[in-house]
Amino acid sequence: MTSGPRGGQRMPLPPARQADDVGSPPGQAGPEPAAAAGSQQTATVGPRRARAAGAKPRQRDAFFDNAKFMAIVLVAMGHAWEPLRDDSRLASALYITVYSFHMPAFIVISGYFSRSFDMRPDRLRRLITGIGVPYVIFEIAYTFFKRWADDDPTFDFSLLDPWYLTWFLIALFVWRMTTPLWQVIRWPIPVSLLIAALAAVSPDIGDDLDMQRVLQFLPFFVVGLNLKRHHFDMVRGIRARKIAIPVFAGALLVAYWAAPRMNAAWFYRRDSAQELAAPWWDGVMMTGALFCCSMVLTACFFAWVPKRRMFFTVLGAGTLYGYLLHGFLAKGSRFWDWYDHDWVHEPLGELAVTVIAATVVTVLCTSPVQRMFRFAMEPKMTWAFRKDPAPSGGGKRG
């Protein structure tokens, strides 16, 4: 992957919390699909208060936790394969295949759980503490890490230029703030695709807030906003699972053929067509082609996500932790030349790297890690917000 203007690879990765992906505490029971970012009042009360009120605490949906965990494992594997691509055509093909759908899958889920975001004060607070604050904290942390690990004292901190994995947080912040707009216009998905296509042919957009990625990935968020639970159930039938196998096999074969012929940067959606040395009309065509390809493979991915609780289901609530924390190791492996050993580029070495990446990100999603880093991921920050006004009105109504 090519380096960004601040010297780092900008690779995507995942939503981490079910209630509204990265806008609510990972350990909190997720609300019903229609109650995303902030959810309804009953979803915000603690288990004791819920029992006292006679209401059962809401349960997380195992399907979405399973999907997020499986996707974060694929993300970590993709990052591990990136340095192997020059020496292994198979690694390059796997990398392209994974990158064609893993980020769109995360973004679709993010949009689905953002459907009720409506600028209500409690939802804005959760947006700030669950997305905005972690963005600032990890942008600072990554800056100092690069200065130290890469011996680059000139690397500057910038909130306007997300480095490496933090781009997804600022993108989700922007997408969620625009949610009310997409819920009132008549043709949200075509409009979002038009915006993505215009971004893909606009090299003057620049790098502030990674707006190219924000705009080019936007259609997947809008698709998620327009989905219902039965849409996910539709792709989980026996027939869909059978179809998914040859589709994935075909995608891998196409990726194997395209690996030495195609610029994989198209899948990052970080640059315009002109910046990729292509004519502007390629940006329009690639926007539509990649959207269709990504949606098909995303549907095939969902087809094989288990619906029932699995041994790894609980880890789906901590994918934001795995996402942001594994970035230090992914980058450190390049800074510290871990891939310079010849054995790493042999088949057994590539397999070992894959297993290590999957194991590391799994550990980083566990409860002990969540407790250790909760101060950065889920700061309460009650001191920073005004208290909600007391409800007005008199006594009981007859």
TrEMBL record:
TM region(s), chain numbering: 63-81, 93-114, 126-145, 157-175, 240-259, 279-304, 311-329, 349-369
GO molecular function term, any single one: acyltransferase activity, transferring groups other than amino-acyl groups
Record's compositionally biased regions (Low complexity): 23-56
Keywords from the named record: Membrane, Transmembrane, Transmembrane helix
Domain Acyltransferase: 62-364
The keyword Membrane is assigned to this record: yes
Region Disordered: start-end pairs: 1-57
Stated name of the protein: Acyltransferase 3 domain-containing protein
Species of origin: Streptomyces palmae
